[in-house]
Each structure stands twice: as C-alpha cells, then as structure tokens.
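Field log, afternoon session.

UNIT: design team B
ACTIVITY: writing a sequence onto a fixed backbone
BACKBONE:
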C-alpha cells in the first residue's frame, strides 16, 4: 500500500491550506452529486475548520459562496460542506475514482489529494473513532454505550445517488456522512433517537455519531444498524410493475407503518398545535414563483397551481401540525421480511434546518409518498396510471385505519401539498436529472388544469 503523507495540523498549515486545495476544490466540488451549487460558479471558498483525523486524512469544513447569487428556493448563496480528504505522494489505481488532483502550491505541494471515504483504510479508521468516544480538535465522537460495535468490519461506500455519502460496515452498520452542514442537531440524529425513546421499532436507532463544536455546533454523521436483507420501496415497486403484479397489499401495510411513525412522532415531540394554512399557502406560493423563475417550463402552469394554494388558505385545517419525515418517498422506506421501516429523517437538504425541524402537517409526508407511486408508475411504458391510483388508495386506507383520520377526505390539503411536492420535484429534476423532468411536469399539468 502506498505510504500516506503525515500532515500535522500546524497553525501555518491551517492558514495556508487553501493555497494548496482552493483551485482543486473549485473544480471538483461542482461535479459531486451532493453539491448544491452545480449551476452557480464557486466564487468564494474558505476554510472554516481543519482537523487531522489520522496521518494522511484531513477533516475539513469549507464555506462556498456564489457571488451573492441566491440558491434554489431562495436558499443562502453560501454553504458549508464537510470533506474528508486523503493526502498521499501517489494514489493507488484502485482509488482512481476518488482522485481530486495534485496540489501544485502551498503546504501540500507535490502531494495527491483524494476523497478519503473511498479509501478502505480511512473508512476503517473513521469507524474506530466512532467505536471509542472521544475528541479530535473540535470534533466529538459519541455513541450509545449499550450497543457494541465490533472492530474490523470491512467498509464499502455506497454508490447510489444521494445528497450525502454512506458507508456500510460488514453489512451490520451504515454510516451516513452529511455533506452539506448546517448548525444544530441534524434531524436524522434527533428524530430516530426520540423515536427509539418511544419504543418505535420502525426506525433504526443510532448507535454512534459525531459532531463539531466549531465554527458552530453541528451534526456531521450518524451510524445506525444496517438492514442487510431489506429492499427499498422503490425497487420493490418497480419489480411489481415489471412482473405485472399488484402492489396494493404492500402499499396498505406501508400506510399503516407510516401512521405508526407519525403517532410516535407526535408523542415524542408534543405540543405542536395546528398549522397556519395561510402562512403555509404563502410559503408554497413563494416556492412556486422561485421555481418558475428557474424552470421556464413551469411558468404556463403558475396560475392554476396558485389556485391550489389559495384554496388551502380557506380549507379545513386538517390534523394537528407535528414533526414529520419531511422528504418521504419510496426510496426512504425499507421492507425486511414482512415489516416496513422508515429511514432518512434529514428532510429536504436544500431547506434551512430550522424549517426542516418545524412542526408541519402530516399531509406533507402523505403527499410525498403519493407522488412517489406516480413516479414509479411512469418508469415503464406504457404508463400505468391505474397502478398508481390503486397504490394511492391502498396507502391512504392503511394510514386511515391506524391514524384515525383519512387523508382522502382532506382534498384541499392533499392537493396543495401534492402540488408543492411536484413543484419541488420539477426544480430538483431540472437541476440534477433533466431527463426525468417530464415525470413531475405531467403531475404539474394534472394539478394545474384539472385540480385532481
């Protein structure tokens, strides 16, 4: 194995580090799936924090700016990202995909820089940090002492598209390393811990995590049990479509499981009260206008979509606002044996953390899942809208059987939240997967013209 370069976190190094890394990161960051500023030039790049986790591996928090150009949905023009960078004289060919580049100047001149999460050695050493709670500079490694984590679990980096990076250790645990960092406790740590306290077994409970205290307190990563024999709902739905099978039984059970999670969330975070439909409608309208500014294809449908939000302001307030999942779809649920599990409570990473942690109508989650059934149905030709309709009915029926209220009887609420979700999908696909844009645009046309 090539020798690693021992890099000590001397003050001079921390000060001059961006001399070595600045241009490399400007080129590399916009190519990463999890980088939010793909369509905006990185005009500002600054080092917020640097810690040597172990020889040859630097933990960085960097600030990126875009010259005052606002992000999607009016998000801040600047973001903080977590990077784990390997530093070596020469890079092994097996790590070629991890290459960032060779530093030409500064304290790392002549050394090769790469994404350390691709490196099994670095991934194993990161797990060792989590196995033994302690500190490294501003970093704090913590965990549940009642759940032992074995040593020597082989790591593998998941290559699926996602807004963070995930390492699976020995098919026993999965570590989510958050990329876009916001101050505060990440809901993907806060919510599963709270649900475990309620005895809810639908969500894997965290066993270890790490955070930073500088420049502000923030969650950096969470280690949870890995459901090795599980399949995600998206894959299962596509399998059912491919084989011509019905998915209504699974959708009904999923609805019950989601109602169980919502009930546990309401108990874990009590006292939320009712949503202000007027404020919610105004926020939805603002997101629509911002998305239409970025995606011209959306503009002809704006008046019809605004009617859905206008109706929200005067319709039944619906169930009490509470903590919700925030980004629910078939890819966020797993089926192991006969049970459904819910994962990824981070919410939509593009939205501020305070918004993601705020109490909202549970209809938001339901709308996300209903849109996901539509997404699945459109993956095959010819499109099978009846398959999606049956799944939607079954999911809502299962939810109503346990929750005590029926989403199908909240037509105004459901239409507004589905519309808001479809607008988010249009912006997402336009930015990340343009070939998929026709899928949410079909829903936009339906919701704007017929108001279904």
């Amino acid at each position: 194995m090539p020798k690693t370069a021992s890099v000590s976190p001397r003050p001079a190094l921390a000060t001059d580090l961006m001399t070595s890394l600045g241009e490399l990161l400007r080129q590399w960051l916009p190519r990463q799936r999890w980088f939010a500023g793909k369509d905006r030039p990185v005009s500002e790049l600054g080092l917020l924090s640097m810690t040597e986790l172990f020889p040859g591996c630097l933990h960085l928090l960097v600030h990126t700016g875009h010259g005052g150009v606002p992000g999607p949905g009016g998000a801040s023009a600047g973001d903080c990202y977590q990077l784990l960078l390997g530093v070596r004289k020469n890079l092994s060919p097996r790590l070629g995909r991890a290459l960032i580049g060779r530093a030409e100047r500064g304290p790392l001149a002549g050394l090769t820089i790469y994404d350390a999460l691709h490196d099994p050695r670095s991934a194993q050493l990161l797990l060792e940090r989590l196995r033994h709670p302690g500190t490294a500079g501003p970093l704090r490694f913590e965990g549940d002492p009642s759940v032992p984590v074995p040593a020597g679990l082989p790591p593998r980096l998941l290559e699926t598209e996602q807004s963070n990076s995930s390492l699976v250790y020995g098919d026993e645990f999965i570590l989510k390393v958050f990329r876009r960092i916001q101050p505060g406790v990440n809901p993907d740590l806060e919510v599963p811990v709270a649900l475990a306290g309620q005895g809810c077994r639908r969500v894997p409970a965290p066993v270890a995590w790490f955070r930073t205290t500088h420049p502000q307190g923030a969650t950096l990563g969470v280690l949870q049990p890995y459901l090795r024999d599980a399949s995600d709902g998206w894959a299962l739905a596509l399998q059912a479509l491919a084989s011509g099978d019905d998915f209504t039984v699974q959708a009904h059970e999923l609805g019950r499981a989601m109602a169980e999670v919502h009930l546990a969330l309401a108990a874990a975070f009590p006292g939320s009260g009712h949503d202000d439909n007027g404020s919610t409608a105004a926020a939805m309208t603002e997101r629509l206008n911002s998305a239409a500014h970025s995606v011209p294809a959306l503009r002809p449908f704006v008046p019809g979509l605004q009617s859905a939000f206008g109706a929200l302001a005067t319709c039944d307030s619906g169930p009490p606002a509470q903590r919700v999942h925030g980004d629910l779809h078939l890819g966020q649920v797993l089926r192991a044996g006969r049970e459904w599990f819910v994962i990824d409570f981070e919410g939509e990473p593009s939205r501020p953390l305070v918004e993601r942690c705020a109490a909202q109508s549970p209809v938001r989650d339901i709308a996300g899942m209903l849109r996901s059934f539509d997404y699945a149905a459109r993956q095959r030709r010819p499109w099978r809208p009846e398959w999606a309709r049956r799944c939607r009915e079954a999911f809502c029926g299962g939810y109503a059987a346990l929750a005590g209220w029926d989403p199908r009887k909240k037509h105004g609420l459901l239409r507004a939240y589905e519309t808001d979700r479809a607008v988010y999908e249009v912006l997402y696909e336009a930015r990340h997967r343009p070939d998929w844009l026709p899928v949410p645009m079909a829903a936009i046309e339906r919701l704007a013209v017929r108001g279904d």
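LOG NOTE: The chain has two domains: 11-225, 231-449.
NEXT ACTIVITY: expression trials, pending approval
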